[in-house]
Write a structure and sequence with these properties.
This protein is 45% helix and 18% strand. It has 127 residues and is an alpha+beta fold. Helix 1 crosses helix 2 and helix 2 packs across helix 4. The relative contact order is 0.22. It binds FE2/S2 (inorganic) cluster. The site of FE2/S2 (inorganic) cluster has 9 residues, from helix 2 and helix 5.
């Protein structure tokens, strides 16, 4: 397996910012949750439609934020689509940061985790 350089990951982040995955309002959906950053005022809303066995049949996101937050939520929604609610609930902060592939400074950690926070909020609304 090839090891990608930080430059490649930075390019990927900028590309996902310009061309996000699973962007938009999912209608109809079973649950949705909006979460925001108290530091910058940016926000992300996650929409989920479940299938049999609590599989995440479809998922989308809306809102606004910096390149890191938007790339992270793109990668996250792509990662959890077709997985179970339990699988998604077990994604750790460290796994989310690892998906981005570059070191994230403490000041930007909230950006990297904003989508995951919104995802957890949405999953908790599913009964
Ligand atoms: Fe607001 Fe990154 S600066 S989410």
């Amino acid at each position: 397996m090839a090891i990608l350089s930080a430059d490649v990951y930075k390019e990927m982040i900028l590309d996902l910012y310009k061309n996000p995955l699973h962007r938009g309002v999912l209608d109809p959906c079973d649950v949705w949750h909006r979460d925001g950053s108290m530091f910058c005022g940016d926000d992300i809303t996650i929409f989920i439609r479940f299938g049999k066995g609590k599989i995440i049949e479809d998922i989308s996101h809306s809102g606004h934020g910096c390149a890191i937050s938007q790339a992270a939520v793109s990668l996250l929604t792509e990662h959890v689509k077709k997985k179970t609610k339990d699988d998604a609930l077990h994604i750790t902060n460290e796994q989310m940061v690892a998906m981005l592939g570059i070191p994230i400074s403490p000041a930007r950690m909230g950006c990297a985790l904003l989508g995951l926070k919104a995802l957890r909020g949405a999953l908790e609304k599913e009964t």
